[in-house]
Each structure stands twice: as C-alpha cells, then as structure tokens.
Amino acid sequence: MIAVLKKTATRQQIDNLTGWFEKQGLRVNESQGEFCTVLGLIGNTAGIDVDLLQGLDIIETVTRISDSFKQVNRKFQPEATVVDIGGVKIGGGNFAVIAGPSSIESEEQIMNAAMIAKVGGANILQGGTFKSRTSPYDFQGLHEEGISFLVKAGKEVGLPVVTEILSAEQLPLFDEVDALQIGARNMQNYELLRALGKSSKPVILKRGQAATVKELLMSAEYIMSEGNENIILCERGIRTYETYTKNTFDISAIPTLKELTHLPVIADPSQATGKASLVKRMAMASVVAGSDGLEMDVHPNPESAKSDGAQSLTGVQFTEVMEATNKARSIL
C-alpha cells in the first residue's frame, strides 16, 4: 500500500502518521518527491481502513499495490533510485559503463584490460573471478587470486570494481570489491539473494536465461525485502529458438522495466549477442531504449581468451563502441 501525502503536510504530521503505521506492525518507506511525499507501507495491510486514511487532512490518495513486487515498484517509490558504486552513480539521469574481461586469467591480463576500459571511457571495471560454466571442464576462474588481481587493477587505474558471486558462503571474500553481480544462472538463487539483501554492497542483478520481466523484479524484491536497496537490473538477453546469436536481446525489456520499477536498468550487449561485431549497434539501441548504463566484455587478446572471446572487444573496438554510444546519448 502507498499513501501519497499533500504538499502541505508538516514534518510533525508525517512523523505522527509514520508512528501510527509502525504501531500497526508495518514498516514505512518514506520517499520525498519534488511535489509530494510518498509513504510505502510494507507488511500485512489487510487490516488498514483505506476510507479512514482518505479522510485524514494530510492524505492525498491511498492505493493498494496489487502487483506481487512491492518495494521495487515505481508506484511504491516514484522517484528514480540512484545507486552509487565506488563514487560512480547509476540511475536518475546518471549513465555508467562497466567494462572488463569475462574471466580474469592472470594479473597481466586484467591489468591490460583495465587500461583498455579506463582509456576507452569506462567508469567501472569488471572481471570474472568465480565462473559459472556449463561444462565442469571449462575454465572456472582464479577465485580468491582473481579477486586480488581485480582489486589491484582497479586501484591502479582508479576504477571501482565489480565481480560475480556464486554462493552466499563466498560473501566474506568480496570485502574489497565495490559491487557484486548475480549472473543469469543465479537470478533465482533465493538463499544468495537474501544474503546479499542483508549486505549494503551494491548488487547488479542479471536477468535469467528464460526469466520473465516479472520474475526478474521478484528476484530484486527478495534482495530489497532484506533491506538492501542498492540494486541495478541488467538485461542480458534471453534464450529463444534463435541460434545465430548467443541469446536474443530483449530490447523492449529496458523501457518496460523503466515503467515498472524505480531501480536503475542497464544492458549487456556482449552477453546478449555473443558477437563482438554486434555490440556497437546493440549498445546504441540500449541507449535509445532508455538504459542507465552498459556492461561490456573487453579483452587485450580475445583470440586467446579462456571464456567468451567471441563477444569480447579489443581496445580499438571498445573505443569505437564508446564513441557511438556517446553520440547516441547526445542526440536524445
């Protein structure tokens, strides 16, 4: 349930109403907008008399949220959420680019990739340390050693860092990482979602390979219900009948999510297509669709990459993508 207060509501009136809601066993999320204050009520609101609330002098409207996702709902919080990753803001008009190798293979490799990302104009450095692979025989990442390489590279080039986490037990290993990523295979790993919800660390939540938009939002709800509001949603393509590209890029999901949720939405054209040659056009399309940022794979030598080499950009290609993306943003 959400209660929109009149612009004339005083601080004392808002505090009194909030206190009354809390006595009813509800948690209250206050959102200050430009023209009004919105109180989002979390918990069992079945016993709340809507007519009684509507009769209060400071209440403009009261609405029950019928959607199963509550806290991530734009009705619950009309103002866009801005997530801060190591000083880089995403959402609410702030655009960010995350770039780096799909897998960290060595200290030299991540350092070279970090330089590519920095020179090309990326704001955040990514790198896979624990890799969730389809085959148990494929490269699984450097694990703790990879984390140390990533953190060192980020400090060297002056970029905050993000990497993927696979299980709740791994959380203590990522203290020096600025943000954590939940990959497509773990989008519905609810134990992991709840664990990250108890953390204040920003989370990039990628859409599952066959997940609906609603299911993505419900996964975000799991995180937010535990108290962590620093969530970024990522459209990275879904599995369809098409086999020419790695996935099918659901570009319509970006404006759809922007309508439904106040959370930032970014796109990953590298994973979405699986082909470096398609990344530039899909990055531009993401910008036009309203994306708050991009995540792309870059590698100093894609031909020798231990994972996702076909979708990884060279330094020259990344610079071209960034130029095209900036041009697209300038005409909006």
Structural notes for this entry:
It is a single chain. By secondary structure, the chain is α/β, with parallel strands linked by helices. It has helices at 11-23, 50-54, 107-120, 144-157, 190-197, 213-225, 253-260, 269-273, 276-289, 315-330, and strands at residues 2-5, 27-32, 37-42, 59-63, 83-85, 88-90, 96-100, 124-126, 161-164, 179-182, 203-206, 231-235, 265-267, 293-297. It has an eight-stranded parallel β-sheet. α7 (253-260) links the parallel β12 (231-235) and β13 (265-267). α3 packs parallel to α10 and α5 crosses α6. The longest helix has 16 residues, at 315-330. The two termini are 35 Å apart. The model has no long low-confidence stretch (mean pLDDT 94).
Write the layout of secondary structure elements.
Layout lengths: L1 E4 L5 H13 L3 E6 L4 E6 L7 H5 L4 E5 L19 E3 L2 E3 L5 E5 L6 H14 L3 E3 L17 H14 L3 E4 L14 E4 L7 H8 L5 E4 L6 H13 L5 E5 L17 H8 L4 E3 L1 H5 L2 H14 L3 E5 L17 H16 L2
What's a quick, concise take on this entry?
By secondary structure, this protein is of the alpha/beta class.
